Each structure stands twice: as C-alpha cells, then as structure tokens.
Amino acid sequence: MSDGIPEFAIVGHPNEGKSAVVSTLAEDDTVRVTPYPGETLVCQTFPVVIDGKEVIRFIDTPGFQNPKRTLKWIKGYRGDPAHILSAYLETHAKDPDFRDDCRLLEPIAGGAGIIYVVDGSRPVRNVDLAEMEVLRLTGRPRMAVINCKEDETAYIETWKSEFRKHFNAIRVFNANQATYAERIELLENLKVIDQDWGPALERVISAFKEDWQQRNGMSAQLICDLLETSLSYSITRSFTETTSEKSLKERLQKEYASAIEQIEEKAHRKIRKLFKHNIFNYSLPIHSVLNENLFSRKTWQFLGLTPVQLIAAAGMAGGAVGAVLDLAAAGLTFGIFTSLGGLLGAGWAALGGGKRLARMKVVGLNLGGEQIQIGPIENIQFAYVLLDRALIFYAHVINWAHGRRDYPAQEHPDKGPAKAGLTFEWDDRKRKICQAFYTATRGRDDPRKTSARKALMEMLQEVLLDISSSETRYGVVAQK
Ligand SMILES: Nc1nc2c(ncn2[C@@H]2O[C@H](COP(=O)(O)OP(=O)(O)O)[C@@H](O)[C@H]2O)c(=O)[nH]1
Ligand SMILES: [Mg+2]
Questions:
Q1: How far is the CA of 162 from the centre of ligand 2 (A)?
Q2: 376 plus 323 within the same structural domain
Q3: Partner of 369 for a Cys bridge, out of 157, 240, 332, 471, CB 3.0 to 4.6 A?
C-alpha cells in the first residue's frame, strides 16, 4: 500500500481460479482466465477506478512453481525477518526453477496484501500446506479464499481448519457466481486482516457502494426513458386504395413490434454497459424468460397474464379491466406477435369505428392517399411487462460475475426458488406510481410528467437496491 491505495496480490496454485477471482473482484472482463495452467507468466495489475480515481488494485500472479523448495529456503533463512522476501528474491532472481515464485512474491515484498485462492472442491495436498506456510512466514496481511470450481463440498472443512492456522481471514467466494453483495462482503472481510488497513478499506467499501448507487440511478433513468419512449411510440404510414388492408396491417404490426423491441434492446445494452460487461456476449440463463421476444405469447403469459395481476390491474386501472381481459382472450388466439395482436388488433378495428385497446387510425389525407397511425399501445400491462423485463435483465447483469467464462449447463440449485416477474408483487403505493407515470406519459401536462417521472425514478432506485442485496433469481421459466 505504498501510495495509500490498498493493493492485493492474488496468489495460489496454477489453475485454481486466481484470475477468475481478480476478474470478478475488479469487474474487469479483460482478465485472462484460461483452462490451461501456466499461461500467466508475469504479474498484471488490475486497478478499480471510481470517478477517475484508483481506489484499490488487484494483482494477478502466475501461481507457485516450487513451493516446497521455497519453503525450505525461507525456513532456513537466518537474517533480519523484515528482509526475508527481498533476500529470497535476490538469491533466486536468475534461477529458472523459481521464476514464477519470484514473480508472485515480488508484489508482496513491495507491500501488497495477500489473497490466497484455492479450489475447495479438491482435497488438501502437501504442496498446498507448503504454500500456506510460505505465505504465513512472509508476515503480510493475508486472506484465504475458497473458490469451489465444482459442487463438491466434502473438503471445505479440512481447508478451513488448515486456513485457520495460516491466515487472518477466510472466505468462501465463488468467482463464477459471486454477486454484488458477496463482493462487498469479501471487502468487509479484508478489513479485518490488519488494523492498519481498516480505514483505507473502509473508504474502498464506501466508494464501491456510492458507485453502485450511481449506477442504479443511471439504470433507473434508462428504465424511465425506455418506458416513456415505448408507451408513447407510434408510427404513421401512407396508404392508397390499392394497398391491401391485410398486408398493410401485418406489415405495420411487424414494423411496430420490431421498433419497440429495438428500443428495449438498446436500453438493456446500456444497462449492461453500466455494469462493465463489455467483452463477452454471454447468453442468458437457458430458462430465462428474456430469451423470448417482448411480444411473444410466452412472455405475456409469463409476465402479463397471471391471474393475480389481472385482478390487481383491474382494481387499479378502473376502466382498463375490459382491455386486460380482451388481451387475455386475444393472446390465446393469435399466432405470431400474439400479444401485439392482442394489443393492437382490436385497435385496428377502430378503423371501422370501434374503440378499444390501441389507436390505429386515419390521421390525414395527402396526395397519394390516406395516412394511418399505429400505436401507442393503450394498456398499462405493457408498462408492467417492460418494467419486469428491464428488472429481470438488471438482476441478471449485476449478478453475472466478470470472472465467468461460460455458463454451466444446469442452474445451481442452492440459490433458492426462482420468481417470475417482480411487478405483480408490488403493493398499492408502487402501482399507483406506475399508473400515474403511465397516465402522465400519454397526456400533455408537462409538470405532471416531470413529477410522475421523479416518483418512478425514486421508486425504481429503491427496487434496484433491493434486487442488489437479494439472492432471488427472477424470470426463470419453469422447466417442463
Ligand atoms: N466452474 C468454475 N470454474 C472456474 C471457477 N474459477 C475458475 N474456473 C475455471 O478454472 C480455470 C482456471 O481459472 P483461472 O482463473 O485462469 O486460474 P488461475 O490459473 O489460478 O488464474 C478456467 O477454465 C476457469 O474458467 C469457478 O468458480 N467455477
Ligand atoms: Mg491466471
């Protein structure tokens, strides 16, 4: 910690997940994580930068090469204990047998704290004991991290009892599954490894939390924008007497659906970027409802048409009861773009004079023929589906560890039961805020729009913070 910035070297045996731990802790997906041991030859520093300032650094190291002989040398050392590491480095600088051990111990000699990573799903071996003893003899503040690469838990207790002899703190931390809350917990734990480090690490934790709040604030803005744009979206097209009504209807419906899908996708992409997922384009969990299109039948059955929600929406939306029920009926009979068909199909009928879900109307005459407008969608359920999908996406992105390089074929059973959307559980207060926003967005009263948006923003920030500290998985479609 030479310049007041806490610095930790991530050390251990090759291929135990050191780089994955660095990647997850530093939220950096450029860290090289590979299935082949021995690929990291030099140390690489990954700083965490918040508001343009470095707050903590994690140093990825190659892993021990010759721990038993290193231990033997260190045990035989009779000089000043304060110089033990510099003496070791001097003696072995040119010896290829100790190349990685030197690289690994250099940052520690320079003042870095130690995070020792082991794969806790395998048994403890003698060589591990040698590594732990070397680290203990450095006298530096040190934490052991158990990163289980497999689900095997039989060896964890043995690991812990060995760790108690050698380390100031122990933490189970899975580099592939760690959530935001677990990253903060790990930092809280680091605080106790040495009194002198406490205040600096306290500042790091505050900076992490403030930064998180800021990202939540920006996410809430993006979600409000998404709702505002989608709820007021309409397209206008000219048509002449020669255009067949059926083909025009189908074309416009498709165009409308894909435009809104793109608006949604863009908003999701921006949220993803806020959480620093830049490189790897992982697929969503295989059972996530987000794998479905916004207007697919499954999406609306899953997020839009639960009986509870129908009743709740009916209660809140007053006159919209009929609309919601129409959607239910239409949603089950239409084929492609089921739900859009449900939302707009009836509106198309408005051309013939009916007036129900959405406006699809003749808005003017020009030389070539008439103009027709499709949208906006007139159903508050649409707002809830957009909200649910954005929140499910957010929950997925924030809990998607940066160290992860693939998805396991199976969902992990230890994370508790999964929930569909979030909004159907919302209380009256939250629903009223949504209702007010929905109504304001469609009106022309600007001060009302501003205050409705402010209320939704604040409410969303609350919801996002709740999701950040929760273990619940959302949006997982039940397996058949
Ligand atoms: N399943 C699973 N695999 C992991 C985990 N951590 C690391 N790995 C995998 O183990 C291999 C070695 O990881 P890496 O971080 O490069 O190890 P290092 O040599 O200690 O830096 C890579 O293929 C990782 O994807 C984990 O928590 N779970
Ligand atoms: Mg590595």
A1: 23
A2: yes
A3: 240
